[in-house]
Amino acid sequence: MQIYKMKINHNLCTGCNVCVVSCPINFNQLRKKGELTRENAVILVKNGIACPIYEDERSFNCDGCGVCVEECPQRAISIQIIEVE
Ligand code: SF4
Ligand code: SF4
């Protein structure tokens, strides 16, 4: 199984929220739940910096689609693919 781990360059991120609103998983969760929280978002801005959220117990996590990487105006996001058992 692969896990997609997003890395945010804190020197570049401005906290603009573009990644949060462009992420398709966040979009679907927002539509379902009416809000984005730590429980249902895969990326959120906290204290002015984008924070990826990975939760083992959840049925969904970042699927590595790369939309946020493309949309980030600062090119602050990279994705690492981790192989797990
Ligand atoms: S889109 Fe880029 S600059 Fe904006 S909050 Fe996300 S990571 Fe930071
Ligand atoms: S790679 Fe895709 S699923 Fe993962 S946070 Fe970015 S936009 Fe969302």
Oligomer state equals single chain
Structural class: alpha+beta
Strand order of the largest sheet: 1-4
Q: Please summarize the sheet with the most strands.
A: 2 strands, antiparallel
Q: What is the first-to-last residue Cα distance? A: 6 Å
CATH class membership: Alpha Beta
What Rg, in angstroms, do the CA atoms define? 12 Å
**Helix-strand string:** EHHEEHE
Look at the structure and give the mean pLDDT. 96
Q: Work out the strand percent.
A: 25-35%
Helix content: 10-25%
Bound heterogens, unique: iron/sulfur cluster
How many domains make up the 3D coordinates?
1
Q: In the CATH hierarchy, what is the architecture at level 2?
A: 2-Layer Sandwich
Topology (elements, then pairings):
Blueprint: E1 2-8, H1 18-22, H2 24-33, E2 43-46, E3 49-52, H3 67-71, E4 77-83
Antiparallel strand pairs: 1-4, 2-3
The chain binds iron/sulfur cluster (2 copies).
Residues 8, 13-19, 45, 50, 72, 74, 76-77 line the site of one iron/sulfur cluster.
